[in-house]
Write a structure and sequence with these properties.
The complex is a heterodimer of chains A (about 280) and B (about 250). Chain A has about 280 residues and is an alpha/beta fold. Chain A has a single domain (about 10-284), classed as TIM Barrel. Helices cover about 30% and strands about 20% of the residues of chain A. Chain A has nine helices and 13 strands. In chain A, the strands form two sheets. Chain A has an eight-stranded parallel β-barrel, surrounded by five helices. A four-stranded antiparallel β-sheet of chain A has the order 4-5-11-10, with no helix packed on it. In chain A, strand 10 (about 195-200) and strand 11 form a beta hairpin. With about 250 residues, chain B is of the alpha/beta class. Chain B has helices at about 85-90, 120-130, 145-150, 160-175, 185-195, and strands at about 20, 25-30, 35-40, 50-55, 65, 70, 75-80, 95-100, 110-115, 135-140, 155-160, 180-185, 205, 225, 230, 240. In chain B, strand 2 (about 25-30) and strand 3 (about 35-40) form a beta hairpin. The chains are: A alpha/beta (about 280), B alpha/beta (about 250).
């Protein structure tokens, strides 16, 4: 079984901010430094997402409550068959992100994607989105059932590089990752956004997931604890990466790859700066 | 009915999103906290479209601004509400800009009128000139006198204070326009829609303002609830018919 993702640069676009590859339309997007691009999570059923407002940023924090808006697996696979993502496959490796509202939906989306796995270098499962009332983070509330799900997905996809995207709110993250490793999963993405509350300029309350540079120490601690417990699992670190130094620190505490999320809203050239830095330091 | 293209990338994938570096030509005060910035460079755009402007490390997202023309120069108007907008007004380095973005404004007829807050005055001036229609500038605070004398023309009227705005809406209600374009604060737009639409009323268009992450249709943050389900300001807007929007309480 593969233990590493073979990436030209260990830098991955996180699921969510990059949508379904819309950045491929942008002039001068730094593809040279993108090791892989994770699509927005696709769930069994179409999701319209949460009612607005959905985002607000201030100081070092950003909050979002998108709610996994996506077309659902059937419409997504139709688009995939019709070649609507070919422009992205031509640019870089693509990671598929999957989710559902419950155990059975996670299994059903897994079965549906089987004929298309050759297009993706890995499949990431979202067990950590804090912005949906069903699925996402709530999947890890019953750990026995969750591990049973991990085992069943692995049986369905015996040869696929499987990644569990985990947050810090389902218990000690290193214990969750251990269960994923015991279930034969190859990697983990740590962390996702953390539940938070912010008031926007109109005085409206946004209950959502916090991201932004202030998450970095939390992500670093999570990566550190996971690596301390599990020496072999592939770790994609995610959370608060905005500068070269952030990536350096995450790799130093045990990450195999660095994921860039909301930082691309500020400037997608962050990718080239961090990518270049990682490559130069990997050579040393 | 839901939007038919939630999260999908359609034929527009072949259209390139352009990046520009814009240098300031001028920056004049409209009110105490609102500025009109003109640029030396040109961008091809259509009325109603917007750009996302980078703020370096002065914010976590680029900021959206509707673009227009002022004395034939590319222009934006900026209300300083935070570090990002303050940076855009004060910096002397070229601004990194992506766009034009969003759908252009195509009104139902040429018989309309434009109502703007100072923060959207560039869009107002541009629409007024483009469609050769009247422009009403509604401001809570007095406008800079030098600015008024520089921009005034026979198609432009100024209304200062909340009461003046309400009086204008009452007047417009009975004038023979097919449509009224309103852009400013969410409250200003909401009041305008409430006063002017309804049975026998006008078509009201608003240039909607919702917090944006990417501005290019990827992140789905700039959602707006409409009678036809969730739409997105960056890809379906920024201009919507007022009677289609479901305002939240």
């Amino acid at each position: 079984m593969l233990s590493k993702l073979n990436l030209k640069v260990p830098l991955i676009i996180a699921s969510g901010p990059g949508g379904f590859g819309e950045y491929a339309k942008m002039d001068g997007f730094p593809w040279k430094y993108v090791g892989a691009y994770t699509l927005k999570t696709v769930t069994y059923n179409k999701k319209s997402g949460n009612v607005p407002p959905r985002m607000y940023a201030r100081d070092g924090y950003m909050i979002n409550r998108i709610g996994l808006e996506n077309p659902g697996i059937d419409q997504f696979l139709d688009a995939l068959e019709n070649g609507e993502y070919e422009f992205l496959f031509k640019k870089t490796n693509v990671i598929l992100s999957l989710g559902g509202d419950n155990y059975q939906e996670y299994i059903e989306v897994t079965k549906k994607v089987k004929p298309y796995l050759h297009k993706f270098i890995a499949v990431e499962y979202n067990f950590s989105c804090p912005n949906v009332s069903k699925g996402g983070l709530s999947m890890v509330t019953d750990l026995i059932e969750w591990q049973s799900l991990l085992v069943e997905i692995r049986k369905e996809l015996p040869d696929t590089f499987l990644i569990a995207k985990l947050g810090i709110e389902g218990g000690f993250i290193e214990n969750l990752v251990e269960k994923a490793a015991q279930s034969g999963w190859n990697g983990v993405t740590v962390i996702n956004t953390i539940r938070g509350l912010m008031f926007n300029d109109d005085g409206e309350i946004l209950l959502g997931g916090l991201s932004g540079p202030n998450l970095l120490p939390i992500a670093e601690r999570a990566v550190y604890e996971v690596r301390k417990k599990l020496s072999d699992i592939y770790i994609i670190s995610s959370g608060g990466v905005y500068k070269e130094e952030d990536a350096k620190q995450l790799l130093k505490v045990g990450a195999d790859a660095v994921s860039i999320g909301s930082a691309i809203f500020q400037d997608e050239q962050i990718i080239s700066r961090i990518g270049k830095y990682i490559l130069e330091n990997l050579k040393k | 009915m839901e939007s038919g293209c939630i999260g999908m990338v359609h034929s527009s994938t072949t259209e390139t999103i352009k990046k520009h570096l814009l240098t300031k030509r001028g920056c004049v005060g409209v009110t105490e906290d609102t500025f009109l910035i003109t640029f030396n460079e040109k961008i091809d755009f259509l009325p109603g479209q917007f750009v996302m402007i980078g703020v370096d490390s002065h914010g976590l997202t680029r900021k959206p601004f509707t673009i227009g023309k002022f004395k034939d120069n590319l222009a934006i108007s900026v209300k300083t509400v935070g570090e990002g907008s303050k940076y855009i007004v004060e910096t002397t380095t070229p601004l990194e800009v992506i766009g034009p973005l969003g759908k252009p404004f195509i009104p139902l007829s040429s018989n309309g009128v434009v109502v703007v807050a100072p923060s959207c005055i560039v869009e107002g001036i541009h629409l007024s000139e483009h469609f050769d229609i009247s422009l009403h500038v509604c401001s809570k605070a007095p406008l800079n006198k030098d600015f008024i004398s520089a921009v005034s023309n026979d198609k432009m009227e100024f209304h200062i204070g909340d009461d003046a705005y309400l009086q204008l809406l009452n007047k417009l209600k009975f004038e023979k326009y097919d449509w009224v374009f309103i852009t400013g604060s969410k409250m200003m737009e909401k009041i305008g829609i409430k006063k002017l639409t309804g049975e026998g009323g006008k078509v009201v268009y608003v240039s909607y303002n919702e917090y944006m992450g990417c501005g290019i249709g990827a992140c789905k943050s700039c959602a707006v609830m409409t009678k036809n389900g969730i739409k997105h300001v960056c890809s379906d807007g920024p201009i919507f018919r007022g009677d289609e929007i479901c305002f939240q309480n």
